[in-house]
């Protein structure tokens, strides 16, 4: 224990001497720090020695020197650390100094750049001033040009109005020319139409002349064909009998002629001739002209289309009662038209108009059905006729000598029961 105290005391004294020996060599800025450390060390050393010193009046000088040396040794170690820190700081200061030099160089370069930019700005200001002067000059020129443009626009508007007036005048003249051209075109068309009408009329005149020549020839032919019948139209010189007619289109044929001028085209009087025949028989005609017969559809077509004819139908009963039906314009069509009953004219008589229903109907036979109904009326009624669906009259139907059918219905003529027919033609 005593040895430790001696060492401690010596360390204190050593540190004290060191601090006095080296205190003059410390930098000014480090003296307060070292002084503080020394004071702390003394305080520490003497804080532990004070109680001892109170009890021990004297210690060996060697122990005090050792303690002194120990303190100085600690202070030296601290000084070494401080020197290391100073070196580090000096190095940092050198680096910062270098950085400051670089910064100064950069600042100088930036100052030079700023100076250059200032000179460039001055040059640009000069250019801007020059451009401003140019712009001002251009503005003045623009103002002048706008004034000139305004003057030219006013002149142009005046020219436009003038052109507009001239255009309207031109349009009016064009409309007038167009109207004149249209009138001329209409006049040309009218002239062309008149020429066409004249040509048509001329052609019609030619056709009429041709038709007149044909009609004159037909009249001459008819006059020749009916030369033998002239006496029939004059009862006082034409007795009733059979006469021969020479029709150019169909050749000569015999026909009965009545004293009052009527030509007989069909007769039924005793049932001796059957009228249930095929198409060809009705076309050519059949029977004996002195008894029951039918003249033939082709002859009727030629006769009724050459000149107008009347039709007279005489009907009689077995008791001797007679009635008649007469039509003032009788005409039939050609074979291509199936000998259609084309015209009857006006009706007069006492038998009743039972033929009007059959107008515009085609002729039918049992082997040539032309009637519009679903049944073959000619086959059903035993004779050819201008059937509808089927008939109001059928003068070529089955003949009943007592004037009635088995069902008490009149088949020959529906106009009056028990009548038989005799057809005259003039």
TrEMBL record:
Gene Ontology cellular-component terms for this entry are: extracellular space
The record, for Gene3D superfamilies, names:
Gamma Fibrinogen, chain A, domain 1
- Coiled-coil stretches: 163-225
Provide the alphabetized UniProt keywords: Coiled coil, Disulfide bond, Signal
Fibrinogen C-terminal domain residues are 223-403
Specify the signal sequence span: 1-23
Q: What is this protein called?
A: Fibrinogen C-terminal domain-containing protein
Classification of source organism? Eukaryota, Metazoa, Ecdysozoa, Arthropoda, Hexapoda
């Amino acid at each position: 224990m005593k040895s430790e105290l001696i060492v401690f005391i010596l360390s204190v004294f050593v540190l004290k001497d060191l601090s006095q020996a080296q205190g003059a060599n410390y930098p000014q800025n480090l003296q307060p720090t070292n002084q503080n450390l020394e004071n702390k060390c003394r305080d520490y050393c003497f804080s532990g020695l004070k109680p001892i010193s109170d009890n021990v009046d004297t210690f060996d000088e060697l122990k005090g020197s050792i303690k002194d040396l120990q303190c100085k040794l600690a202070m030296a170690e601290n000084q070494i650390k401080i020197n290391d820190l100073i070196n580090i700081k000096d190095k940092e200061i050198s680096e910062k100094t270098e950085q400051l030099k670089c910064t100064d160089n950069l600042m100088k370069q930036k100052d030079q750049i700023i100076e250059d930019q200032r000179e460039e700005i001055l040059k640009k200001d000069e250019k801007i001033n020059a451009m401003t002067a140019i712009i001002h000059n251009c503005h003045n020129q623009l103002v002048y040009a706008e004034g000139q443009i305004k003057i030219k626009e006013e002149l142009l508007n005046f020219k436009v109005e003038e052109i507009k007036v001239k255009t309207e005048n031109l349009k009016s003249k064009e409309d007038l020319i167009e109207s004149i051209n249209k009138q001329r075109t209409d006049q040309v068309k009218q002239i062309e139409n008149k020429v066409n009408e004249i040509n048509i009329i001329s052609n019609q005149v030619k056709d009429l002349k041709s038709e007149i020549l044909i009609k004159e020839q037909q009249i001459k032919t008819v006059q020749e064909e009916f030369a033998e019948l002239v006496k029939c139209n004059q009862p006082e010189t034409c007795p009733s009998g059979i006469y021969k007619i020479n029709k150019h289109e169909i050749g000569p044929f015999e026909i009965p002629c009545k004293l009052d001028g009527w030509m007989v085209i069909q007769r039924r009087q005793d049932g001796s001739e059957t009228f249930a025949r095929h198409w060809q028989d009705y076309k050519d005609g059949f029977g004996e002209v002195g008894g029951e017969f039918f003249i033939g559809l082709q002859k009727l077509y030629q006769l009724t289309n050459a000149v107008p004819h009347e039709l007279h139908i005489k009907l009689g009963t077995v008791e001797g009662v007679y009635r008649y039906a007469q039509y003032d314009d009788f005409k039939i069509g050609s074979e291509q038209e199936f000998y259609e009953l084309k015209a009857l004219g006006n009706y007069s008589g006492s038998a009743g108009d039972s033929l009007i229903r059959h107008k515009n109907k085609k002729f039918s036979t049992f082997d040539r059905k032309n009637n519009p109904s679903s049944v073959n009326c000619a086959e059903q009624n035993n004779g050819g006729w201008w059937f509808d669906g089927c008939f109001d009259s059928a003068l070529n139907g089955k003949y009943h000598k007592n004037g009635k059918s088995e069902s008490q219905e009149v088949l020959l003529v529906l106009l009056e029961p028990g009548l038989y027919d005799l057809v005259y033609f003039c």
